[in-house]
Every structure is written in C-alpha cells, then in structure tokens.
UniProtKB/TrEMBL annotation:
It is found in: Nucleus. Its main location: nucleus. CDD domains: PDS5. Coiled coil: none annotated. Pfam families: PDS5. This is Sister chromatid cohesion protein PDS5. GO terms for cellular component: chromatin; cytosol; meiotic recombination initiation complex. GO terms for biological process: cell division; chromatin looping; double-strand break repair; meiotic DNA double-strand break formation; mitotic chromosome condensation; mitotic sister chromatid cohesion; synaptonemal complex assembly. Keywords: Cell cycle, Cell division, Mitosis, Nucleus.
C-alpha cells in the first residue's frame, strides 16, 4: 500500500469527449487538453500509477478526438497520446487498429512542420521530438498496414515537406525517426527505397561542405539530408537491398538494349540507356556520402568493366573514375577495391576507343583532386597520347589543355619527362586538331612557367642559365625550367614545316603565350631576351625569318592601304583608273591570301575590308605596321582594331553600291584573319620602345643577355634599321658607343647598325669632325670588320672623297709586315666599291702584290697534328690567324674590283683571270702554293677557310650578269667540290649561301642542280634540312602565280644529268673499270643516288611525264662539252655516250617511281629545246636514229639495275657502292670536255687540277618518303665567310 501511495496518479478528471448531453466547445476542449498535456509531460515513467490513466487512454483514441477538425485539438490529442506511449513504454496501451489511427493522426499533424509561423507549430515540434526520443515511431513497423503507413510517412517528409520551409534544427530529428523506421521494418517498400535513393540523383550539395550526421548547415534539400542520414545509420541493412535493386535494374535494361535489334514496339533502348546512366550516377553519388553502402555493389561494376558490351564498359569506366575522384576519409577505394582499380587502369588499352576516351575524361578530374595516384594516372595518360586512334590522342590533348590548369599540370607532371616529350612530338602530328591542341598546351605551360622564372632580378636568369650549377631537385624554379625550357625551340622549329595551318597556330601561340601584350618595357624586353637566349641556332633563324616576314607584310599592308585610299570604295569616276586600282588591289589581296590557311575565308575578308572603306580602320593598321609607332601606340591600336572588327555593325556598314555584292563574312572571320595579319605585320619585337633596353644589355658584359642582345641589334640593323632613328643622339651615335676600347663585337654591331640606318636616312649622318676622325681611326687601326663599316659610313658623307683619299694615302703602298695589314686590305676592298677612281690606278700593282706576297706565300708553317680543322668567324679576328685572314681579304679585293668594273669594257678580261684563280683554289682544296716552294703546304685550316670564301665570292660574282655569263658549265661543276667538301663547316656554309641566292633569285638557275649533290651528305640532319628547303622552294614556285606553270626545277633535271655525266667520280668509275661489269654497275649506282634524290624532292604526279620527257629528250642531242670531231670518228671513244647512259638510267628510275606510286606516264604534248650551253644538235637523221634505237647501258648491267629497283619497295632502297679513293691534289681532270684555247690558258700560270672529297659515299637509298618539312625560305650567312 505504501508503494502504491508513492506512485504518481493522474489528477486530470475532466471530460474531453463531447456528447449531446454534455457538449464541449472547441475552445473549452482545447483548454482541457492543454491541461491534460501539461500534466502528462510532467509524469515520470518510472513512478506512475498506470491504472489512473485508463480513462484518459480510452478517451484519447475516441474517433471524435482523432478526427477532430480543429488543428489545436488535433495536435494536443496527438501530443497527449505521444506522452502516453512514453509512459506505457515499452508496451503500447493501444490495439493495432487504434495505433493505425494514431499514426494517421501523427502524420496529419506532421504536415504542419512546413509552417513555422503556424499557431501550433511548437506543439507539432514537441510531438515530433517526443516520438524520436522515446522511439515510439518504431511501433509503425508492427502494424498490419505498416507498409502503407511507412510509405505515407516517407512521402510526407520527402515530397510534401521537402519543398517547404522545414527548420534546419529539425532535420536531424526527422532523420532519426526515418532511420528508426528503416532499421525496424521487416521489409522496406520498394517505393520508399526509391524515394531514399532518388535524392542522391537530385542532389546539388558538395560533399565537402556537409556533415549530415551532426549538422544541417549548407543543406539545400532536407530530403537529401534524410537520405544520407538513413543510409549512414543503416548501411548494413540497406546494402543488400541496394545490391538487389541495382542488379535488377542493370539486368533488365541491359537485356532491353541487347534485344534492340528485335522488333518490339514496347522496347525503347534510349530509355533503357538512360536508366543505366542513372544507376551509375546513383552509385557515384552514394560513394560520395555513404561508401560503405556499396560494399556489395562494387562487384557489379567490376563485372561491367569486363563486359562484352561497349556501352556498359563506358558507363563502368566513367562511374569508377568519378568514384576515385572523391576520396572518402573512411574508405580508400584503391586499397579496398584494388582489383577493380587495376582493371580500371587497364582501360587505357581497351579495344574500344570510346572506353579509352572515357578513361581520359575521368583521369583529368582525378589529377586535379588527388595527388596520391599521379604515377598511375600519368602512365595511363602517356599511353593515351600515343594511342593508335587519333580520336583518343585528341581527347587526351584536349583533357590536358582544357581540364588542367598550367599550375596543376606542372605540379602533377614535374617529374614526368615522357608526357612532355610526347607533347613535343605531337606538335608535329598530321592531325591538325591534335597538333593545335598540343601547341596550345605547350604555349599555356610556358606562359605560366615563365612568369615565375623571370623576375626583375637578373641574378635569377644567371642562375638558371648556368648549366654547371647543381640543381636542387626540390626547387620549384628548377623543376619548371627543366620541364618547359625546351618548348620555345620546339615551337619555333615548327616554322620549318612551312604548313599554313601550323604557322597559324605557331603565330597565335607566340603572340598570346610567349610574347603577350605587356606595357612594362623592362619586363617585356627581358621576356623577349630570355626566350631568344634559350633558342638554338635553328630556332633563332626561324625568329629572324619571322621578322623578315614582318617587314614584307607591313610593306604589303601599307601598299594595300594606299591603294584603298585611292580607290575610295570605288567611288572614283575615271573608269580606267578604277579598273587599274581594282587590278592592283586584287594582286595584293592574292599575295596576302597565299600565306594564310585555306579555311579562314581570307579573300572575302580582305575584299570586305576594302569595300568598307573605313578610314579609321586604315589609320589603326597604319599605326600598327609603322616602325615609327611605339609599343603603347601599337597595343592601343590593336585593341581598338580588334574591338571594331568584332562589331557586326562595323563590318556590315557597306555603302549602298556594295550591298548587292555582299558575301557572307562573319565577325569571327574578320577577327581571325586580322588578328593573324596584325600579329605578323605589327612592329612588336623590334619596336623602338625596346631598343634602348636591348642596347643597355649589349654594353653589360656580365649580363646573361649580352650575347643575344648583340645578335638582336644586328638583326635589327639588317631588317629594320630605321627604328634606331630615336636613338641617334644629337644627330650622331653617342660617344660611348664609339669608344675603341669597347669589346670588338659590340663595336662591329654598333657600326653596322649605324651604317644601315644612315644609308636609309642620310640626313641623320653627323657632320662634326670628331665623329669622322673616329671613323677614320677605325678604318686604319681598327679590326678588319670595323674598318669595313667605318669606310662604308664615310663613303655616305659629303666629304667622302677627301676622307677616303686621306685614308688611302696612309695605307698605300701596302706592307704585309704592318700590324694592321689585314685592316688595310679590308679598307682597300671597300674603297674599290665606293671610291673606284681613287684606287683603280694602283689596282695592277695591288693585284700583283697580293698574289706574290699574300696568296703564293705561307708565313705560317703547317702542323697537321696540332692544327685545328676549322676557324670560327670570331676567331679569324685573332692576330694568330692574320695570315689566313689576309688571303681571304686579298680575294675580297679582287672581287670588289670586278664588281666596281662591271660596266667597264675590260671587265670580262680581268674576270677571266680571277675566275681561273678561283677554280684553281677550289680544285686544289684551297692550296695554290707550289709544292716546290719552301712555304708549301698551306695549313689545312687555312685551306678550308680559303675554299669556302672562294666559293662564296664565286657566287657573289655570279650575281652580276656580265660575269654570270662567263661562268661555263665546267666551272659550275667545280663548285660540287664545296658541296661535297671533307669539312662539314665548308659544306654547310656554302650550301646555306647557295640556298639564299637561289631563293632570292639573284643567281642563274644554272646553279640549281648543284644543290642536289647533297645526296651523298653523311650528316643526316644537314641533308634533311637541304631536302626540306628544296621541297619548300619547289612548292613556292608552284604557288607564285595561280594558273602559271613554272618549270624551273623540272628544267634543272637536264642540267643535273649533265653534271652527273661529267662528275669526276662517275668518269673515273667508267674509265678505270671498263672491262668489269660489276664496277660499271657501281658507276651507275653512284649516279642513281643523285637522280633518286632529285626525284624524291621534285617528282609529282603532275610533272612526272615532263621529267620523263626531259630524260628522253637528251638522246636527241649531242653533249656540247664533247668536241664535235669526236662524234665524226669511225670508232669514237665510248665515253662520248655517257650522257645517253645517264639519260637511260633516269628514264628507268622515273618508270620505277611511277609504277610504285601508281602514276600514269603520259606523252608530253609540247616540245622544249634543251640548253644550248650543254647540248648541241645532231648532224644527221642517221645519227639521231642510231642513238634513239640504241640501248647504251649493257644488257647485263641494265637487268641488274632494273632488278635492284623493281624488287625493292619504293624509289629509295639500298645499293652498295664501293668507297672511292680521293685523288691526290694536283691531278688534272680526266674529261672529254672541249679544251680551252692555248692562247687563253697562257694568261694565268695556275693549273686547275681536280680535287676529290675524301668523304666516303653513302649507299644509294630508294625508300620513298612522302612527308617532309617545308622551310621558311629565309636563309642566313655562314660563320666563316666575309659579308658583303
């Protein structure tokens, strides 16, 4: 009894059930329920007399209360019941039916949770929390209609309330309630499972910003929070169901897709595919938040990776990639699912390109988000970049370009040289999109890296450029430098390919990534110097060619603008003048279009530009291309120009007269074309704003930029000297730049720059005495090259006669013992050009002196063991080599004298002597000193320099028509010695000059065949460079005039065959081994080297018939270099038929090439006469018929040659040639040429023996090579030659 008395009893006795006898108003009822609620909330579950609650318990489940319409009554009834469930726990005091009605009441009241401003919101919250605290909600799982109630419960919180304003502090409570239901339910309804999982698919929350167990911050969707909480607390329970759910969906939809070929109207494979995509997205989203839930599902994805269906593998590859991106703090995918990880990595080798591409797309995201998997991912990307499928390679390049910031790229691949090397190869990829993407990647990387590498402190540059310094592997600066330092060379060298689309990409990269617009002069110039300082010689030549192109383009645009202003939109009244202007404008437009890619609509863009007649656009372009504009002016002009061209109103604002002829031109077309045109033609690199800073580096010998700054100044002097205009102080070069004690190289470049500037702007030439005294001192006491440019400047002045006379008097008579003897020769050589009347009276004595005391004397003894093979250009200025330098300048004096006498009557007579001297020097390998002389031999390095400079001066004379016509074919043949010289420096520099002169068309086309004798070149890179130039020059010839047929290179084939016939080695192989077919076979094989090299460079489907015609045509002529009387002999020497044998050999090779290429050899319709200097007509029809019907190559040899060519694939395969023994110097040429008259030979007592190269010949190669690089077309002077 005592215990019963201590139990808490319910005091509430009022009626809460309205009846007819005792009606209760809603207000009264609400007050009574409130009192009941207040008492129930204070009841302690452990100390209560449950019997006292029986009446209330019964009343509260009365239908009148459960279904009462008043919101307040309803919520208080529910709250009271919730407390009763707490008090009676763990046993519910209600029947199953009553509990069903109770939970319906709960759900009814939970709807008000979305209305925080409602009058009973707090009471609803209390109800919710009470059910959560006591876990009374789990009773719902034991009811007969539990599935229906559970579905309604989840539907309420997921659908009804998800769009309403549910307080964030309630989200954990609701999550707890729903989680309890899932945990206790015997089975989870499929609809509920879908509700839970679908929220993963609609989620927009970043997993890094949410902790759904403890917080609801940053949650945009409460229902998603419920999902994550439910899954996290019930992962074990849901894992199996999830696995079955996903497995069913996968199997069903895969079956639908597999049965797509069967006609079934009920099957929509697109829907099935979308379902599969959703499932895989679901898996990824679940991984982000509840990775444990996927423990069973991963097996399904693993199986998909090995599926036969490509779509499944694509989806699985994508899903796993996204999973790996999100590293869970609880589960390491790579460790827990290692086998799946390995299979995923192998998808780079999947048979389907779609799968490989998908792998690439996902790998980029992994690289950005994770650093622990770099090695494996990098290896896969390396494979993708060299994939056999171009789509895969393109995808890999796009991924690196678009998805990886340069900072991420460098940090991830700082130690991966393979990827960088591969990108370096891809910039030469055939596929244009891949190539362009690779160029963009490298441009972006270099732009990013150089911003860190270049600072205002020059010490940073010095540290980077010192190759001997030990690098700290942990240094980011050194890592970046190692990673990107090669990029400029790679990009600049692409210009040699000479492809218009490649050039477009290169130019955009250079101007937007290497040299972007930068207003700060110091930073801009340092960047320019830094990049140029990193270039190799080949790339630096590309830069020089780039600036030469800039000059040509700027002149073309100025011409176009001048014509446009005269044309004035076509409004001029003079019809003839209008037509003339239209014709000239069209010529300029056509010239500009030739340089542009074919997909830019360039002609229509330029035509629209002309028709717009927009004077503001004209003015802006003039500012950009003018050398008088400073950098800031060009920058602002470019900005305004591009802005105007992107405005459709501007480019469509045509006069009414032009509207009818309107051709579609978009703003994109305009900006693409004019951006490239302006980048190429604007004075950006050699801008006058840059000059003073560049010149400051030329004076600082400690600067790492000193060398390159001097080179740039020299380039500016040659290309655009007028930019120096603002740097001529007070009308003259500042005195500190004229000090004689300055380093030699700096003075040379300063003097050269001054000369080129004053030559163009003579009004700036100073007149003060001090200046010219300095120049006079240079011309007498300076170095040879200082003297050269000093005398050139003097000869531009008004007092040049008096100054020149004064200088000559100090130098003449010559004295080889003088310490400045070479300087004297340099000055006199220039005086022959500029002051002929002053020195010509003494020319005979000067010539005699130079031959006797300089050329035929050696005052330095040869030491074959210790003498170097070569002397570099700068080293020639060393006094040690004065003996050699004097010989070179002696030749220079002879050449300059001839140049000055070009129009004189005795020019040819004097030239005969000089040309024979040159032939003798070249033929004797640079030696003309007699063996009987005590001074013999000339040192070998002197000989090499003399050979080279003799050849170069030979070419200089060939530029003048009067001397060019004197050069006989046999003389040209002598130059082959230089192309095949034993010294690589001689070969390279001579061929470089030859290419330059041929390219500029300043020497006769008779010299073209010489270039093909590079075929035996042992240096593969050099040979490739020459081959590249030949193909580029040939292609340019084809593009000069639309519709024209320039056959210069095709005609040269005849001259080449003639030169081969008279080549000393071919003659020797024929004459020495007359009776041995095997040796004769090697003679023809030797000739085949040159012919096949020519065909490889020049032959096309269009000209192959013409080349065959030329080869056959030779057999209709006699060899003009063979004495005519030899043809009339009854038994003529067999050697006179050598030209026909070479002709037949060429025909055989052409046929073989045509067969291999599937080209059709057609009869050439025209008739072309062969060169009269090489061929003479036959004297009778009988002779012509005999030659035409005779096969001059022995049948046994012919079969061997045919078999050799036909059994090998391609036009260039291997034929062995025995090494030839070089002939001793002094041996005369064995030839069947006409011999010059004895009278002429007596004019110079110097023999012309034949010199043979000591280089071993390469084997003949007939392998076809369909690809080649083009070339810029701009060539440069060699190292050890004397410039004009």
């Amino acid at each position: 009894m005592a215990k019963s008395a201590s139990l808490q009893k319910l005091k509430f006795k009022e009626s809460i059930i309205p009846t007819i006898k005792d009606p209760i108003s809603a207000k009264v009822l609400l007050n009574r329920l409130t009192n009941l609620f207040n008492e129930l909330t204070s009841v302690d579950q452990e100390k209560v007399d449950l019997s006292t609650f029986d009446a209330v318990k019964k009343d509260l489940v009365n239908q009148k209360l459960l279904k009462h319409n008043d919101q307040g009554v309803s919520v208080y009834v529910a709250s009271c019941i919730a407390d009763l469930l707490r008090i009676y726990a763990p046993d519910a005091p209600f029947t199953a039916n009553q509990l069903t009605d109770i939970f319906k009441l709960f759900l009814k009241n939970f709807k008000n949770l979305g209305n925080p401003d409602g009058p009973y919101y707090d009471q609803v919250v209390y109800l919710l929390k009470r059910l959560a605290e006591v876990r009374s909600i789990i009773l719902i799982t034991d009811l007969p209609k539990s599935e229906s109630l559970i579905e309604k419960l989840f539907d309420l919180f997921y659908n009804v309330l998800s769009t309403k304003n549910v307080q964030k502090n309630l989200i954990p409570v609701i999550s707890m309630i729903l989680g309890e239901v899932i945990a206790e339910a015997e089975s989870i309804p499929l609809s509920v499972l879908k509700l839970i999982l679908n929220k993963f698919l609609t989620n927009t929350t970043n997993p890094s910003n949410i902790n759904l167990i403890t917080s609801s911050l940053n949650i945009s969707s409460p229902s998603f929070a419920y999902t994550v909480a439910i899954c996290q607390t019930n992962s074990d329970r849901l894992s199996a169901q999830l696995n079955k759910f996903i497995s069913d969906i996968l199997n069903e939809n895969i079956r639908l897709i597999a049965n797509d070929e069967e006609e079934d109207d009920d099957i929509d494979p697109k829907v099935a595919m979308k379902n599969l995509e959703k499932v895989h997205k679901l898996i990824v989203e679940i991984w982000k938040y509840v990775p444990d839930l996927l423990s069973s599902v991963m097996g399904l994805i693993d199986d998909e990776l090995l599926s036969d269906d490509v779509k499944q593998r694509v989806l699985a590859t994508e899903a796993i990639g996204k999973i790996i991106v999100h590293q869970s703090p609880k589960v390491n995918f790579v460790v827990k699912h290692h086998e799946t990880w390995i299979k995923w990595l192998k998808k780079t080798l999947d048979i389907s390109p779609q799968v490989r591409i998908k792998w690439i797309e996902e790998s980029s995201k992994i690289l950005v988000s994770r650093t622990d998997l770099i090695a494996d991912i990098s290896n896969g990307i390396s494979k993708s970049l060299i994939d056999s499928d171009e789509k895969v390679r393109l995808s890999a390049c796009k991924m690196l370009n678009e998805n990886l910031q340069p900072s991420v790229f460098i940090s991830r691949f700082s130690n991966n040289i393979t990827i960088m090397k591969t990108l370096g190869q891809l910039v030469r990829e055939k596929h244009s999109e891949i190539r362009n993407e690779a160029i963009k990647i490298l441009g972006n990387l270099y732009n990013y890296a150089i911003n860190d590498l270049i600072s205002l402190d020059l010490d940073n540059f010095s540290t980077i450029k010192q190759k001997d310094n030990k690098k700290d592997d942990s240094s980011d600066l050194n890592n970046k430098n190692d990673l990107v330092s090669w990029i400029p060379n790679s990009i600049f060298n692409l210009i040699y390919i000479n492809d218009k689309e490649i050039n477009y990409s290169v130019d955009i990269t250079l101007f937007e990534h290497f040299f972007p617009i930068e207003s700060n002069n110091e930073i801009r110039v340092k960047r320019l110097l830094y990049i140029l300082n990193s270039l190799d010689d080949r790339a630096l030549k590309s830069f020089q060619a780039f600036n030469k192109r800039q000059k040509r383009l700027s002149e073309a645009f100025l011409t176009l603008l001048n014509l446009c202003e005269k044309f004035n939109g076509g409004t001029i009244s003079d019809q003839k003048q209008k037509e003339l202007l239209e014709k000239n404008i069209n010529k300029v437009l056509q010239w500009l279009c030739v340089q542009m890619p074919g997909n830019l609509n360039t002609y229509n863009v330029l035509d629209r530009f002309v028709k717009l007649n927009n004077r503001r656009l004209f003015h802006l372009i003039k500012l950009c291309v003018s050398s008088d504009s400073d950098y800031e002016t060009i920058k602002n002009s470019l900005k305004e120009l591009f802005n105007r061209l992107t405005d459709s109103k501007t480019i469509n604002n045509l006069p009414s007269s032009g509207q009818n002829e309107l051709i579609s031109v978009s703003t994109t077309d305009m900006i693409k074309n004019f951006k490239l045109f302006m980048y190429r033609s604007s004075v950006i690199f050699f801008n006058k704003s840059n000059i003073s800073i560049i010149m400051s580096y030329t004076k600082d010998e400690t600067s790492p930029f000193n060398r390159i700054a001097n080179e740039i100044i020299e380039q500016i002097s040659n290309i655009i000297p007028n930019v120096f205009q603002n740097h001529i102080h007070d009308g003259k070069i500042s005195e500190d730049e004229m000090e004689v004690d300055k380093p030699y190289d700096i003075n040379i470049k300063s003097l050269k720059a001054s000369f080129l500037f004053f030559k163009r702007y003579p009004s700036y030439l100073p007149t003060d005495e001090h200046y010219f005294n300095s120049l006079k001192d240079f011309s007498i006491n300076g170095s040879p090259l200082e003297a050269k440019y000093a005398i050139k400047i003097i000869c531009l002045s008004k007092q040049n006669e008096s100054l020149s006379s004064s200088i000559f008097k100090e130098l003449y008579p010559l004295n080889y013992k003088s310490s400045n003897f070479v300087t004297s020769l340099s000055t006199i050589a220039e005086l022959f050009l500029y002051q002929k009347s002053l020195v010509e009276p003494e020319a005979a004595e000067i010539t005699s002196y130079l031959i006797k005391e300089v050329l035929l004397e050696n005052r330095v003894s040869a030491d074959d063991e210790n003498d170097p093979d070569w002397i570099r250009n700068g080293e020639l200025e060393n006094k040690v080599y004065d003996e050699c330098y004097a010989k070179v300048f002696a030749l220079k004096v002879f050449v300059n004298r001839l140049k000055s006498l070009e129009s004189e009557p005795n020019a040819e007579e004097l030239a005969v002597m000089v040309l024979k001297l040159f032939v003798s020097l070249i033929s004797n390998g640079g030696e003309i000193v007699s063996k009987k002389s005590a001074n013999w031999p000339t040192p070998k390095h002197f000989q090499a320099i003399l050979r080279l400079n003799t050849g170069l001066m030979f070419l200089k004379l060939a530029k003048l028509p009067v001397y060019s016509k004197m050069i006989r074919p046999s003389t040209i043949s002598t130059l082959i010695f230089l192309i095949q010289d034993e010294n690589i420096n001689v070969r390279k520099e001579f061929v470089t000059k030859l290419k330059k002169y041929l390219n500029n068309q300043v020497i006769s086309e008779r010299f073209i065949p010489l270039i093909f004798f590079i075929a035996h070149e042992p240096n593969d890179q050099f040979k490739l460079d020459v081959r590249t130039w030949i193909k580029s020059s040939f292609n340019r010839k084809l593009q000069i005039k639309e519709g024209s047929k320039d056959i210069t290179f095709e005609r040269s084939f005849v001259r080449l065959l003639h030169l081969i016939t008279h080549h000393h080695e071919f003659i020797d192989l024929n004459e020495k081994q007359k009776a041995e077919d095997n040796k004769l076979f090697f003679a023809y094989s030797f000739a085949m080297v040159y012919i096949s090299f020519y065909l490889d460079c020049i032959a096309t489907q269009e000209n192959i018939s013409l080349l065959y015609y030329f080869s056959n045509r030779i057999k209709q002529y006699r060899d003009a270099l063979v004495a005519g009387e030899l043809y009339e002999l009854d038994n003529p020497p067999d050697s006179i038929y050598s030209i026909y044998r070479v002709s037949e050999l060429a025909c055989m090779l052409i046929k073989a090439l045509a067969k291999q290429k599937n080209w059709i050899l057609q009869t050439w319709p025209g008739k072309i006469q062969l060169f009269a200097d090489l061929f003479s007509p036959m004297q009778s029809t009988k002779e012509a018929q005999k030659v035409a019907s005779t096969v001059f190559i022995k049948e046994s040899i012919l079969k061997r040659l045919q078999s050799q060519v036909e059994t090998e694939t391609g036009i260039k395969k291997h034929v062995k040639i025995p090494p030839t023994t070089p002939a001793k110097r002094g041996r005369k040429r064995k030839s069947i040429e006409k011999t010059p008259s004895a009278k002429k030979d007596k004019k110079m007592a110097i023999n012309t023996p034949v010199r043979r190269s000591s280089r071993a010949r390469k084997i003949v190669n007939y392998a076809g090579d369909s690809e080649s690089e083009g070339e810029t077309g701009d060539e440069f002077d060699g190292e050890s030659s004397i410039e004009d």
